[in-house]
Amino acid sequence: MGHSTFIGGTHPYEGKELSMDSPIRVMMPKEELVFPMSQHIGAPATPVVAVGDTVKMGQLIGEASGFISANIVSSVSGTVKKIEPRLLSSGAKATCVVIENDGEYTPVDGLGETRDYTKLSKEEIRAIIKDAGIVGMGGAGFPTNVKVTPKNEDEIDYVIINGAECEPYLTSDYRLMLERAEDLVTGLKVVVSLFDKAKGVIAIEDNKPKAIAKLQYLTQEEPNLEVKVLKTKYPQGAERQIIYVTTGRRIYSKMLPADAGCIVDNVQTVLAIHDAVCKCTPSMSRVVTLTGDAMAEPQNYEVKFGMSHSELLKEAGGLKCEAKKLISGGPMMGMAMYDLDTPVTKTSSSILAMSEDEVERSEPTNCIRCGRCATVCPSHLVPQMMAQAVERDDMEAFQGLNGMECYECGTCTYVCPAKRRLTQLFKQARREVMDAARKK
Predict the structure, then answer these.
(1) 3-state SS class at 265
(2) CB neighbours of 185 closer than 8 A, spacing ≥ 6?
């Protein structure tokens, strides 16, 4: 097996105590709900409803269009008001189906019925995952049915639940590991059943002792499942890091986890698989962490997709002081939110409200060549030289320095005493290289 940690990384302030000890609350949306047709990597879904249609909760409203795409279902019952482009929290626009919530939550037939996964074939399980519109809920949004149907099915020997949750402030996965531990174990068994040789591993950082104890207890009689305890360090939960510490295998940007015999899924993704396969419930909601020192009542909420972030924040008690910065996601890899009138989607993990904007406070200065960025980089890159290449617009040099191996974790920016915006530079450079490759 692998190791409990990796070389590099850093220890940012965790901030988890703000929200980790309160049970998840369910948040019901009031007004209209907005369902973007692109909540995933790949082709946007195609709307299969028209303005004026009545829809039920759990009904398909957007159909996957192409191999890498995902279905979208309505999380409420009501009437389709509009189909038009709307703003997303990333700042991009996407075609959205807008539904007026009738407050009845009338379900499609069979929604929530119990089903025995051991009586289903692998093909049936994969079809259920596809129909349910499940995507990677750790943030990447890759369609899960594609991930669990690799070309080399016989070579998969590890199914890993990524329960590291190394991003500071976020505690939704932690709460779910405590509150829905049995379902998580069953969900893991469902995925493991798709691969004849696979073992299931739940990887958790050692700052979550209660979750570790509960999951160890639930898996002690399961010879095929184990809990792997990892050292708490950022970015322990990155896919490459988790595969290396769990199995000792390394993957690079040109490889998929399946090339190293691994399938890696986030906690919420595995719970979504459980709900679809064992409870006939498609992907309609997720748990979102509302936290930060400006949040009045830090708390995790189960939120239906399509609910507006501004409505969510208001219903959750709002802010206790002015927030200089609102972030969707964690402080290391999240994106600043410019507009809260955007819908919660499959990849929305948090609203992080900060009373100080550290980036605004600190002006970047010239590189002092201290080398700290290279010491902490989990991909063993030399960020200072990569940044020089990007600044002189030399994408060949950037690639020659293995710049495409950067996965934008933010550790270099975090430790830089000169406060240089390294991660942002690399994000732009990688996008430029990928766009150029696509045009070719």
Answers:
(1) strand
(2) 202, 215, 218, 219, 222, 225
The residue type of 421 is R
Q: Residue 13: count other Cβ atoms within 10 Å of its Cβ.
A: 8
Can you give the pTM of this predicted structure? 0.92
Instruction: Check residue 177 and report its DSSP letter.
Output: H
For residue range 407-440, what is the model confidence (pLDDT) as tens digits? Answer: 888 899 889 999 998 988 998 999 899 889 888 8
**Which of 330, 415, 422 has the alpha carbon at shortest distance from 11?**
415
What is d(CA 74, CA 84) in angstroms, rounded to the nearest whole number? 16
Residue pair 195/263 in contact by the 8 Å Cβ criterion:
yes
- Burial class for 97, CB neighbours closer than 10 Å (0-12, 13-18, 19+): buried
Comparing CA positions, the residue from 59, 81, 259, 240 lying closest to residue 162 is: 240
Sequence letter at residue 369: R
Q: Which of 187, 133, 183, 182 is nearest to 160 (CA)?
A: 187
The total of other beta-carbon atoms located within 10 Å of residue 314's CB is 13
One-letter identity of residue 105: Y
Q: How far apart are CA 145 and CA 42, in angstroms?
A: 13
Predicted local distance difference test score (pLDDT) of residue 361: 67
Phi/psi at 247 (5° precision): -120, -15
Q: Which two tokens stand for residue 324?
A: 């200089």
The span from the CA of 270 to the CA of 16, in Å, is 22
DSSP 324: S
Angle formed at CA 83 by CA 79 and CA 85, multiple of 5 degrees: 140
User: At 293, which amino acid appears?
Assistant: D
Cβ within 8 Å of residue 306, ≥6 positions away: 29, 33, 34, 35, 74, 75, 76, 99, 343, 344
Average pLDDT over residues 231-243: 88
Q: How far apart are CA 345 and CA 337, in angstroms?
A: 14
